[in-house]
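On clarity, I found the account of how folds are encoded harder to follow than it need be. For illustration, here is how one protein appears when written out as sequence plus structure tokens.
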Amino acid sequence: MRRLLRGFLVGTAVFAVLFGLAALGWHAFEGRWDNQLFNSSEDTGTTFCNFSAREAAEFLKAHPEVTVLDVRSRAEYEGGFLPGGVHLPLAEEEAFEARLSEMSRDQPYLIYCAGGYRSRKAFEKMKAAGFTRLYHLHRGYLSWQWEDLPREEP
């Protein structure tokens, strides 16, 4: 019985350490990625920001000219989206790239997905394509829902 209990405790400890490292690893990776993406510069006239849901809501109220881009799947979008959200699914690469080529590089855009990963990828693509005013919703639509902010449905 002692051997079984000891094995269980060791296994639980190993799991806890590995799980903790995995979580820490994502946050460390996310932090490095964020530092590369969200680096505005007055010298170049670029603005690249990462907003919490509350900050994004306040920003959108103060700046109605911002275009809100939802890069989630069709099914996710049909479940609800940020007010005024324009659906531009990142997974449809050719359509996404084609739409980017038609969009103004100086227009401000707030980009979001469900949790923040796909929107970071879209942000990265848009930044590389020369867009100069990009804003990102940290933790995506989930953070917007958690804050119980207004949503629309198609």
